[in-house]
Amino acid sequence: MHTSFQNSRDRLLRHFLDFLWHQWSALGVAGQRGGDDDRIIDPEALLLATTRFGRYDSRLLDEVIDWLCSNGTRINLQRLRRLHDEWPVADLRVMNSISAILSQQSVMRKWTTISDPIPSEVKPEPLFSHPDGSPIPVLHQPDPDFRRNGLLRDPLERRRMSQSPDPSRAANLLCCLRALFGVNARAEIIAWLLTHESGHPAAIARDTGYFSKSVQHTINEMEDSGHIRSRRDGREKIFWVKPGAWDFLITWSQPSGFPRWVDWMPVFSAITTFIDALGEPGLDDAPEQVQSIQLRQALDSAMPALSRAGLAESLTASRKLTGIQLIDAIREDLIKLENTLEPSS
Fold it and tell me: What does R_g of the chain's alpha carbons equal in angstroms?
């Protein structure tokens, strides 16, 4: 049976764009309000993925920029840079353009710190593409902020319909904690502790995107408040919060407790790897052996991210499989990957 990898790629891309829309809408981006989700939204991970995949949905990218113009101070720029360095998913030219737009506001001048220089020899190209990769033509004078970064698009027009994150939605817990504690590591640390039984600073740092020593220093300070507890487990110091002590933070009706923590960046990284691999020109028409080799390379490349996200154990594909067996197994795993994006409540 002939396998269309392009169709599989397009299906995964559609699912991912729907997911991005759902999470951004929950944060306040103007769009159709989706159902509630019991998983915490990670604004930095979401933004990094959107700079890349928003190029396939101009309305999504423009509404996200509109939201950032009003809520950009809610983004932790230090964490954004750290996550990008570990998981290079973002399109830096898009990120640079967004930085230029936001930094025109005095309260967001710090956005200039995330810009990276673009080589002068980079040839300008259309910013937006159809899902099949064909470029969307520019009909007017190109937007200058994007043009300086080698991207051509019609001038950005903000609709100014964005709202602040709704505290009645459990998925917005992290943004609510930032409003309460500030845009710093303390918000992520509290969010992590509220969604785990206990943990040591290295695990918290890995999942939140901070340096381990920074988390250790900060959480030791926070322990002095009497609201965070610790115990020794050999050489490790384990931290936790007393169950029920922080329930006053619950401002939503569903779920009954705190939302689930999801380490989104490795999930996004794995999805990016497969979308890129399945979209390779000529893959559909290549011999089965060549297809198998290329898919194995994609699987090997995505495996560290899948393992980090806790998804590797459920995979059907493995290095023991070859040929059509490997191809069929990866197709099955792609459906599982799509299912991880479905909202849960």
Answer: 21
Cβ contact 189:215 at 8 Å: yes
Looking at the DSSP bridge assignments, the partners of residue 231 are 238
What does the angle CA 111 – CA 117 – CA 122 come to, to the nearest 5 degrees? Answer: 130
- Least Cα distance to 96 among 72, 114, 123 occurs for 114
Q: What angle do CA 178, 36, 57 make, to 5 degrees?
A: 85
pLDDT tens per residue, range 301-324: 999 999 999 999 999 998 888 899
What domains sit in the chain, N to C, each tagged with a CATH number?
Answer: 178-249 (1.10.10.10)
271 within 8 A of 16, measured Cβ to Cβ: yes
For residue 162 the two structure tokens come to 């964005």
| Whether 208 contacts 183, CB under 8 Å | no
- Give the model confidence (pLDDT) of 263-294 as tens digits: 999 999 999 999 999 999 999 999 999 999 99
In the Cβ-directed half-sphere of 282, how many Cα atoms lie within 13 Å?
4
**Tokens representing 190?**
């509290």
* Region class of 250: left (phi > 0), else alpha (psi between -120 and 50), else beta: beta
Strand 236-240 vs strand 229-233: parallel, antiparallel, or unpaired? antiparallel
Residue identified by tokens 């980090």 is 308
- Span 48-58, pLDDT tens digits: 999 999 999 99
